[in-house]
């Protein structure tokens, strides 16, 4: 839930410059980061600034990349289109098939099985895209590093994203035969979005001085949240204009869109593509690219592979950072899954319409912005590791609470009446309890994502921050297909959306446990 999703994006708020006349700062990972009180002491090192810092316009244009890309994650893969895909497109097809196959089953049982099939289908689209991202991103990232220039790679991946988004317009509810093609469009768009983010993140150390990296990274992070928030407001205004005072009560969607044909949900694909084209342009125009190395594409690919293999071989000498990367890989999968499937679960459980999902998304996104600032504050005061641990604990408790809510009960053992038709916004006890736990996820996901990237900067050996940020990006994607895949399998086998999401708890608890053994100290470089 929230921009996750990104998400599950790898952006972060690096900590502010450390103070103290004795240089009591851990100068690794592209910035000066204050050591928390009572934390293990680390050896100090310096990272040189870029030779030519980008202009302020170039830096803001870089940050605008998050604003341009975030609507895809917010309104397509997290809150709106994901729920439409699972709980309308697939649900209706499966319900028709189940009625024919099991005429003796009750309507409630058939609906539950159809909803489980929808969640499972969405899970497999996310799993497939995650697997391909894991395979492609390290190779393409190393290839781009060898070539020197990253904008050509960003351009191609953003084009794939645009085409995938445009294709979603054809996700008609009366065309079950298009579900496979729409799934492919979602997979392609997700791959394009995630890979372009890897390339864009790599610009950061080259366009701003180390002591301002935290500010610029945090600014981009905030711009992303705000972009998702604005996109949700636009969807809400079009789908339910009376809710925002733009039309009398009971008015149809704006722009003459047909609610029966789900044109609002389908239009967000092309609209997100248009948004991306407009707002990503400044990055291409004003943010400086790396210098070309003169290597051809084939030689750059070979050099990239050699560099990647060499970095992976070195990793065995750095057991503490390696343990952290494994822990991050696991708990990040859990966070990405709860973000990606929260809206789908809520929509299936409470049968929320688009406008309710929009309000739900807005509330979580606002808290995500607050959480991002909170994460930076906590990081400076208690350290990156403790900030991540606290955030994981919060998300774990919230996920358990979310799973305790069903259509007829809360906290696993308390029975409540089913929500009434025609109720107000979040008008039942179970919806209110669900929202309470969901908002806890919203406030925790910002610190969890932000402090995670700061922590790898603290652990990286002197002079190897670039390599370790590349490994961080790889670990953030290496197994992103696993949680959705297991959710899809377990949901399909159990016929229950709730049981399918138990996978999230396993990933969060395992990652938290491994993180406990990570020491927050800079590794010594092995020569």
TrEMBL record:
Q: Where in the cell is it found?
A: Endomembrane system
Residues passing through the membrane, by range: 72-91, 153-172, 178-204, 225-247, 267-286, 322-345, 357-378, 390-414, 434-456, 468-493, 499-518
In this protein, which residues make up the domain named Major facilitator superfamily (MFS) profile? Answer: 71-523
What molecular function terms (GO) are annotated for this protein? transmembrane transporter activity
InterPro entries per the UniProt record, alphabetical: Atg22-like, ATG22/LtaA_families, MFS_dom, MFS_trans_sf, Sugar_transporter_CS
Q: What is its main location?
A: membrane
| Record-given protein name | MFS transporter
Native species: Vineibacter terrae
